[in-house]
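User: Round two. Same drill as before: sequence, then structure, for each protein.

Assistant: Same drill it is. First protein:
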Amino acid sequence: MSRILISHIRFWSRFTPQNDEVLGECTIKCMENTPVMTPPIQKRPQIVGEVYLSVIIPAYNEERRIGKTLAQVRKYLDAQPYDYEIIVSDDGSQDTTIPIVKIIQEGWPQLRLMATVNNQGKGAVVKRAMLTAKGKYLLFTDADNATPIEEVEKFWPYVETFPIVFGSRHCRGAHIHIHQATHRKWLSRASNLLIRFVAVPGVWDTQCGFKLFERNAGKNIFANVKMERFGFDIEAFVIAQKLGYPFKEVGIDWYNDFDTRVRTGREAIRTLKDLFRIKWNIMNGRYDRVGYIQDFTLPRRS
């Protein structure tokens, strides 16, 4: 573990500016290379503390990947014309994930760490971060960076119409560059078909870890989410429908990481149990009692 920690210290030391002049030059170069497709905001907000995008990264024993992922996220977001924050929501990691993130925090004020002592589940730590995030838009993405942060640019054209825009590996426009093992691929497809049939008709990929929420929609939805593990995505869509929020599925570029923390068989069983718990809740009208904690305003449909 100490070797991994030392390697991250050396890696991130390269990002520390030597003086204000160097920092200014880097900022100018980043702005010059900003992609043509940008969000509606054309300049940084003038109100102190205003955050346009919150990026939530759930993490569990991610010491080998979290440093690289955060470096890629920072490189992209520092070049954008809006203010942002990053929330790493740790789920009781037993390795050096938390010390690594704390080291990176020292030179990155936009980075926040939320940690819990015990493992609670991905759904629990995503919910906790969603409810504390400050951004106008809330994006959660996986720690393996399977969907590059740049893919968020595909979402901006839809945010004025849809309060929820999410990435998909299985709809038109999606490109899978590194494929999963055959058994994982077929299990994923079978799971998606079952989820569509049982709980969320019309959605091709509920489980892709790249979803963007308008702030009020995200907080209203996740305040009602009860599933603490991988079934939380499914429940979030069911609650969104009950609350009247439309959503848009967008094909994204996706790269499988073979060094995954997910154990196929065990998590498939857990997700299946959650799916049928959700179906039971639907049949018994439990989601008819969901409510709002923020203003409810639907975007204007064009």
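Second protein:
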Amino acid sequence: MLVAEEAVEIRVLRRQGKSIREIARRLDVSRNTVRRYLRGEGLPHYEREARPSKLNSYKHYLAERVKAAAPDWIPATVLLRELKALGYAGGISILKDHLTTLRPVARPEPLIRFETEPGRQMQADFATIRRGRDRLAVFIATLGWSRATYVEFVTDERLETLLGCHERAFYFFGGVPREVLYDNMRTVVTDRDRYGPGLHRYNRTFLDFAHHHGFLPRLCRPYRAKTKGKVERFIGYLRASFYIPLASQFSPEGLKVDRDTANARVGTWLRVVANARVHATTGEDSFDAPRAGAGASAANAHVVARSDWEHSREAPDPAATWLSASAAGVRRADHRGRG
């Protein structure tokens, strides 16, 4: 079989008026070969030798991880971290290409984003992770400007649980925002628009709590939970990037993630992954690196972060036993420029 260059030369020589005999003599091929290529069989096709993919050794692992997480889905970024720990030397592109063969990527719904100035707003909500007798839920608080987020897993959504989560979130951020946005939590509001449009009757204990800490409770529009889209989006991110990968590590043994295990792991995930991301809207990470080192005291970290909050009250010290000093060292206020 002739190479492509020889096939082209046959046709060029023929267009130049050379006879089949002359072309065959020049290229040292038979006249039948010249005739065959002149009849238009096309150029020869090269078949590149297939090289083994860097992902080949890990495809079984990926299939098992996807199977363990089903019907949920583990993002490619999470699986890439896991593969890197196993020695994978490839990139995320071939990983994503392979994952599309396991499940097509759904197109996200477009959202309209609303921005608030630093120190103004925190969005808070509960999300159910697991129902039933071993119920597991999560409290999430996200700052409106920086998207810095506090996470705490709980087993109920009672008022005392909600208030405790708020105190630990304020301590984590190092200050109190001017307002906190909620949906229609029964522990927050008892009668929406009771005194007129936008004038709600709040739970009295919760209202006293808000007054004590110096923030205003706000409600998102009815049936429009995406009004507080920052925390809503983070719920999905938390499930996909943290909880599902963690749960899938326990599920092959028939075990379930409990509250204490989740809280013991989520602090590191917030510090290393979630709050270390460079956000697409602000172009910055949610928290600076610890200014005083991993061993900094919670009190010192609190003073550093609180200085950046506008019109905020000093956050309480809830003495949360599972919140480590290293996690406290990664505090950053919501007030930071985008320049």
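The chain has a mean pLDDT of 77.

User: Perfect.
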